[in-house]
Task: structure prediction
Amino acid sequence: MTISFPYHNCHLDLHLPRERVKAVLTSQIADYVSPKGEAELVQEALDHPIGSAPLRELVMGKKNILIVTSDHTRPVPSAITLPLLTQEILAGNPDADITILIATGLHRATTREEMVEKFGSYMVENFKIVNHNAFDADSCQSVCTLPSGASFEVNKLALETDFLITEGFVEPHFFAGYSGGRKSILPGICSYVTVVENHSAKAIAHPLSKAGVMGGNVINEDMVYAAEKVGVAFTLNVALNGQKKIIGAFAGHIDESHTKAWNFVDSLSRAEAVQGDIAITSMGGLPLDQNLYQCPKAISTALECVREGGVIIVVASCCDGLGGEHFGKLMTRGTPKEIYEYLLSIPPKETIPEQWCAQVFAQILQRNPIIVVSELEPEVVRSVNMIPAKTPDEALKLADAMVGPDSSVVAIPDGVSVIAIQ
Result:
């Protein structure tokens, strides 16, 4: 049997006897095809907003308009969405002064080349585009205290604008429930102080901080509160299939439209968890598989489908390396148990940037070994307490050596798009 896993901008195949495959878990969303075109879906959403008047009416008389969009690490098809959004704005207010703010969170700045690739040359050449910098204290302003007790500091542009718009896409998120909507603000354009407090060890360890869970999710509650405080006036979110094509668009009131969006994605993403001796998954290719830092999103799904002591295999190019500097340092500071205990000892207000992914890795590695199929040098993979492999077939041989050659395998070709339910 051959099973393909997205990898960078191609696929890698796993070959194994059919009788070893206990299950192949996919979401309905992966192969979902809309009868309508991508631009048509977005335009219909803008024409019929949820819980809101049309955008072209809302922007009348507004001078400075800010659109918050996702950065190069997210597959939001902004080359489609941004021209339609700006077209709507200018139809209602031809004199509007539009600025596009890239929600980098704690990521590096998006380069001009990446902007052209993601937004299209028309947007780059005709609109002011600014990278958020969470580490520039002067660019952010304190607003209030969040429900968790964390301080809320946000990019000043969001507070100075006459009209605030966000755009994004919705998929299961391994600790925020679902991406999209309110995440454009927190963590998207907040100071690093706010982001790290929201992503503290205590918050990540909360039992309801997991994929597919919104109610009672303490991380989500802070995010919703932050979006309300800055007064997001209109939002556009899309749902994407496995080919990163738009299959649904939801515009309007930030809470109402986002709820419709994640309910749509939720209905197509859930699959019954099946446990095996080995679980193999991927990050769905670019852009999410560009570094190891992002990989807990898929590995958390695989965790639901492997027995204790079984092996997790993740297929991810990691073409940009481990990820952030802090993540790399944390992942190499000791054994998984030592890393986990150290991170849990850190108070929320002293949270280290990027520690949340190190925390998830450290917790999982205490239960299951992880084999990484990537471009990373073998010694780099070993330095973070994981096992290197160059192909899925090589990874399977390594796993067989640990759990036996007749062990059962659960495959999750795109672990980011699936919510595995026990």
Q: What stands out?
A: The longest helix spans residues 254-269. The chain has 16 helices and 20 strands.
